[in-house]
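Supplementary Methods S3. Complex input for the flavin-adenine dinucleotide-bound model.
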Amino acid sequence: MPEQLAGELALIDELAGGQAADWDVTGELPTDLLRTLGARGLLCAQVPQTYGGLGLSSQENGELTAHVGGLCSSLRSIMTSQGIVAWAIQRFGDRDQRRRFLSELTGGKLTAVGFSEPGAGSDLAAMRTRIEPDGDGFTVHGEKKWVTGTRYADFVLIVGRNGDGDGSAAAVVPVDAPGVHIELVPHPMGCRAAGHANIRLDNVRLPATHVLGGGGQPLSMLFTTALSYGRVSIAWGCVGILRACLNAAGSHAKQREQGGVALAEHQLVRRHLAEMFIAEQAALRACEHASRCWDSASPDMGLMAVLAKHVSAGHAAQSAATAVQLLGSTGSEDGHVVARAFRDAKLMELIEGSNEICQLILADHALSISDAHKNRDDAMQVGGPRG
Ligand SMILES: Cc1cc2nc3c(=O)[nH]c(=O)nc-3n(C[C@H](O)[C@H](O)[C@H](O)COP(=O)(O)OP(=O)(O)OC[C@H]3O[C@@H](n4cnc5c(N)ncnc54)[C@H](O)[C@@H]3O)c2cc1C
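Predicted complex, serialized as structure tokens:
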């Protein structure tokens, strides 16, 4: 790990360590903490140094994300959203937009990203929000649901339909623009301090400079690009949850005695610990592979992001449940690290492609592999034996 990153992790521990339980209970993160971390480039750490970012690789940002994920999933959720927006700006913004908005994001401004709508959850193709040219600017009209980080955001990246057919656009919408109405999601089950909100956009007028690349990107390309970043980020966040659960379970098993011996002496408890360790390692390896694909711009990138997210979220949800089981009543207290992990990890199985949606994508790939194998076998039969 680069020395600079080790220093930043120590700073995060100093600023954010030991407070997640309180934030979970109050349902709020300190905005000054978010701005401090944002202004150090830590909320979207892959942004290149030219734009004031840290220019971390996906692998390095992954370790940073896992570290934060182990401390507080709400804070990690903010990082994921900020990173998705930064990546979308980097990918779809023109030169001026990259310079302006990325510098704002690495300078302490906060953001969020709105894809989901009342009628468009897993099926983002059902999106109805429209971003249309209007005079010398654009108008945004529609509704977004469960947008993480809105409570703290200066602007939200809104994705909507643009033009005919599959056309879409992503618009930078300041939260104080006339026509933006925000309603916080009350008492979410997990990531309680992540500031989720529903947003109504009533004919919000924007200058043309606020629509990334002028719009017109195919919708599937826009959300697949953005979601790939989000999937890798969430997957690494789940590694953090897995590590936090493993640590809590391991130390409890050593300290707590039942039947005259430490829990760790009971074979069934040891099996739980072994399973949690296997889960953490499996998730870590899937994340490392996805990040390697990202860093080498491999064509497998999108698929490996889905795989890493699916593996890590499933293991985190299962291991958090196991950790609560192992800690018994101690782990059932509100605010306890494993109780919080149990609620937070479950939500990771729903977002950025639910378990089922990830399975459908992976199944499509499995079928394409078997088709490719069949075609190769057929071709060999036609060509006859070689050699
Ligand atoms: C904590 C949290 C944070 C979020 N943050 C954001 C955010 O920042 N920005 C944003 O835009 N959205 C956000 N969302 C919304 C999130 O993206 C959606 O919840 C998610 O896409 C699932 O959509 P849905 O809730 O409408 O469920 P639905 O799509 O209605 O799905 C319900 C169930 O049906 C299953 N299902 C759906 N379609 C199929 C199918 N074809 N085959 C099999 N099963 C299927 C799903 O897997 C799921 O189990 C967030 C949600 C949560 C819970």
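The chain has three domains: 3-105, 111-217, 220-367. Residues 81, 112-116, 121-122, 146-148, 191, 196, 347, 350-351, 354, 356-357, 360 surround flavin-adenine dinucleotide (CB under 6 Å).
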